[in-house]
Amino acid sequence: MSAAFADVEGAAPAGAEVIGPGKAGPGETGRGAAGSGAGPGEFARARRNEVVLVAFTAMTNLADGVLKIVLPLLAVGLGGSPGQVALVGLTLTLPWLLVSLPVGVLADRADRRRLVIVADLVRLAAVAGLLVAVAADASSLPVLYACGLVVGLTEVVANTASGALVPAAVPAERRARTNAWIAGAETLANEFCGPAVGGLLVGLGAAVALGSAAVAFAVGAVLVAMLVGRFRPAPASPGRTGEAGSGGEVGRGGEVGRDGEGGGAASGVGGVIAEIREGLVFVWRHRLLRTLTLTIAVLAASWSAWLALLPSYAASVLEADAAEYGFLISGIGLGGLAGAGLVSVINRLLGVRWALFADLVGTFLMMGVPAVFPAAWAVAAAAFAGGMGGTLWTVNARTIAQALVPDRLLGRYGAAARLLGWGTLPLGAALGGLLAEIFGLRAAFALFAVTVALLPIPFLRTVTTAELARSSGS
User: Fold this and answer.
1) Which DSSP helix (H) or strand (E) runs through 335?
2) Structural contact between residues 463 and 356, judged by C-beta atoms closer than 8 angstroms
3) Distances from the Cα of 234 to the Cα of 33, 117, 406, 411, angstroms
4) For 108-193, where are the alpha helices, taking DSSP H only?
5) How crowded is residue 88: how many other Cβ atoms within 10 Å of its Cβ?
6) Residue 226, helix vs strand vs coil
7) Closest of 236, 292, 246, 242 to residue 417, by C-alpha
8) pLDDT tens digits along 64-99
9) 29-62 exposure pattern, b = at least 16 Cβ within 10 A, e = fewer
10) 8-state DSSP, 408
């Protein structure tokens, strides 16, 4: 999911129910997690890092949103067939399936701030190269595909490493607030401003659009260089295997493995495979994190199916024009922004458990309303609920993971969770299309709604207030 598919008060943070003020989360020793009693210098550092992270997120997501519009339009201008144009989008997303796990290992071995800077500079070079080709009238479909693959690969590196930066950059009691601002920036830049700005810039010329994206990546690299702190992963404690936690499946301190496995990074292919396995095992053995990951896998597939089915549904069932279709899609983004703005209030009133549960409700409405109530305003309202629930989930799930996952595993955990959770995106789109072909559009929505309706059973059994408190060590 994106941020909408993914904060904002300085009082009690949104995640206070998970990690209380002044407490470092499990495995956070040495991460710079400052308590509420931190001095003025620590507070100023945290504020600076928050601003940098949010600004970096906005700039790079703006560039991503522009490229998602520009690259396919360039393929159309080159006379590409529908399949060839669609292949451009595949080049941007395929690296998540192919390299996310080894990139997670890299993010747990190297300085994460440096990785983000290098990734942004490589993205800058790729877009600048395409810009030169366009200006010289030497662009071609293979050149577009190469640019898309480089941008997609470096996006995996940048997102994995930047996600692991937050615990080292921001103290525990401010993380929920920071995560919400980041989610809001992702939604605003990627879902709204990026595509809109991209469309406007393409009207001025492809070179202008590509140049703007390149400048955004350059600014992103400069911003990340302004972060204050130490961003190389903390080494594992010798011989530490962790205490039984989360049902005795994995130590809350985070060191995983059978018979005392775990420890420092090994070299060679075997070492990389062992580290990848460690990240996957960590996700799978931790009952709470496993439930959250598997839940988001179903929700992500449903969102993907909704996006794939909606164009045909809007045209044939709602008889909507292009403007009305845009209105339906915008419901997700508007809901995401509302969720980012209200997450602290909702967490305080309902608690983290029910804020997470709101995503199940929102996704159920997204899938169920088109099946039983084919009215444009109702579908848009359901999309708003889904977007809001998606942001509530994203903010809280990030905060929970940053508290539970040890620093040395943050990159691999993020990569494994994305692979297991977001790997269902293409499956959801394909399954939605197949069901629509066999049973019809409304029936396809209904079948996904039934699937989502089954999720509360495992969710409510595992994601309890007591489990959240126990996992946080409070």
Assistant:
1) helix 322-350
2) yes
3) 13, 20, 9, 12
4) 112-135, 141-169, 175-186
5) 23
6) coil
7) 292
8) 878 877 888 788 788 877 567 767 777 887 787 788
9) eebbbbeeebeeeeeebbeebbebbbbbbbbbbb
10) G
N-term to C-term CA, the chain:
30
Decide if 1 contacts 296 (C-beta within 8 A): yes
Structural contact between residues 341 and 184, judged by C-beta atoms closer than 8 angstroms? yes
Buried b vs exposed e over 415-432: b needs ≥16 C-beta within 10 Å?
bbbbbbbbebbbebbebb
List the Cα angle 357/362/363 in 5-degree steps. Answer: 100
Q: What is the largest CA-CA distance in the chain?
A: 64
Q: Six-digit token pair at 152?
A: 């997609």
Give the pLDDT score at 33.
41
Joined tokens for residue 78: 């080159």
Q: In whole angstroms, give the CA distance from residue 431 to residue 306.
A: 11
Give yes or no for a contact between 234 and 30, defined as CB atoms under 8 angstroms apart. yes
CA 139 to chain centre: 32
Of the CA atoms within 13 Å of residue 221, those in its CB half-sphere come to: 18
pLDDT of residue 185: 81
Q: How far is CA 36 from CA 39, 171, 174, 374, in A?
A: 9, 9, 9, 50
Comparing 9-18, 74-83, 272-281, 410-419, the range with the smallest average pLDDT is 9-18
Token pair, residue 398, equals 């990030």
Q: Name which residue leads in pLDDT, 59 or 73.
A: 59
Q: What per-residue confidence (pLDDT) applies to 86?
A: 65
Burial category of 239 from C-beta neighbours within 10 Å (exposed 0-12, middle 13-18, buried 19 and up): exposed
Residues 351 and 327: beta-carbon distance below 8 Å: no
Q: Which among 189, 198, 194 is positioned nearest to 70, based on CA atoms?
A: 198
Report the C-alpha gap between 465 and 418 in whole angstroms.
25
- Give every CB contact of residue 168 below 8 A, 6+ residues apart in sequence: 31, 32, 112, 229, 230, 231, 407
Amino acid at 460: L
Q: What is the DSSP letter of 233?
A: P
Contact 119, 162 (CB under 8 A): no
The Cα 13–Cα 346 span in angstroms is 11
Distance of CA 372 to the CA centre of its chain: 31
pLDDT at 245 over 50: no
Provide the token pair at 320.
């909507």
Q: Mean pLDDT score of the chain, rounded to an integer?
A: 79
Cα distance between residue 163 and residue 112, in whole Å: 9
